[in-house]
Specification:
Two copies of one chain form a homodimer. Chain A is α+β, with helices and mostly antiparallel strands and about 140 residues long. The longest helix of chain A is centred in the first third of the chain and has 10 residues. The first copy, chain A, has one domain: Roll (Pnp Oxidase, Chain A), CATH 2.30.110.10. The two termini of chain A are about 25 Å apart. In chain A, strands 1, 2, 3, 4, 5, 6, 7, 8 and 9 form a nine-stranded antiparallel sheet that branches. Chain A has three helices and nine strands, in the order E-H-E-E-E-E-H-E-E-H-E-E. Chains A, B: InterPro entries: Pyridox_Oxase-rel, Split_barrel_FMN-bd.
Chain lengths: ~140, ~140
């Protein structure tokens, strides 16, 4: 919440409010020792975890299960040079509990891609950071 | 360029055309052994490298100079569940050549934040991948 030169640091509650209205975010992880990033649609669950649905055969599932990942969402307006970004960092895990999987199949996020037998991946929001850029019309 | 279930793989030229029109992308790197991601405004240079301008004191500069990073841009429409994403992976380096720095100060990307004595970071587009999501109205 303190003010810096060009942006305002957001507190956890502000971050979660912004995340909740973003339809798409990006999972940031490591694949074959290289930095990797994949945009996905998602939903925040009631404990502020990031939930997404993907193919059980995807590279993503193999790379992130049990691993700390980052998840980013943002919204910027190039005309006013303003916007916000939020990053959640925490362990990702595939939902393996059948009852929980069944519950998410009814209530959780779907995938934007046609999927049969999708699996749910949850990212715990251990660390949540964000900032708001107010626009700097004088900057080139 | 081949067709998969829910998306179309883009070739390098298509990726670079889309990147060239995106005002904001995200640098994906590792900071203190954790995955990190930071949205930045950027420009593609004539050799298809990603160029950005940032503070010489930033965490980003310290973390990415001489390191392979990923850089992602995308555009999605939640209503039609369609859009595209492009990822560039390659080594990042701070521009240290005075003549090149001077040239970029005149012609390169500015920063959206007010900066004094910004430095330019270049990411070589060694690997460029992308995909287009055509919309899957049947998916939940």
């Amino acid at each position: 919440m303190f003010q810096t030169d060009g942006y305002r640091v957001l507190d956890r509650q502000e971050c979660l409010r912004l995340l909740a209205r973003a339809p798409v975010g990006r999972v940031v992880y490591t694949r074959q020792a290289l930095p990797a990033v994949l945009p996905v649609n998602f939903r925040l669950d009631e404990s502020a975890c990031v939930l997404m649905c993907t193919s059980p055969a995807s590279d993503l599932v193999r790379a992130v299960d049990g691993v700390v990942v980052a998840f980013e969402a943002d919204e910027f307006d190039a005309a006013t040079r303003s916007g916000w970004s939020v990053v959640v960092t925490g362990p990702a895990s595939v939902v393996t509990d059948p009852a929980e999987h069944e519950r998410l199949s009814r209530t959780g996020p779907g995938s934007w891609m046609p999927l049969r037998d999708g699996v749910f991946v949850r990212i715990e929001s251990e660390m949540v950071t964000g900032r708001e850029l107010r626009g700097a019309p004088g900057a080139r």
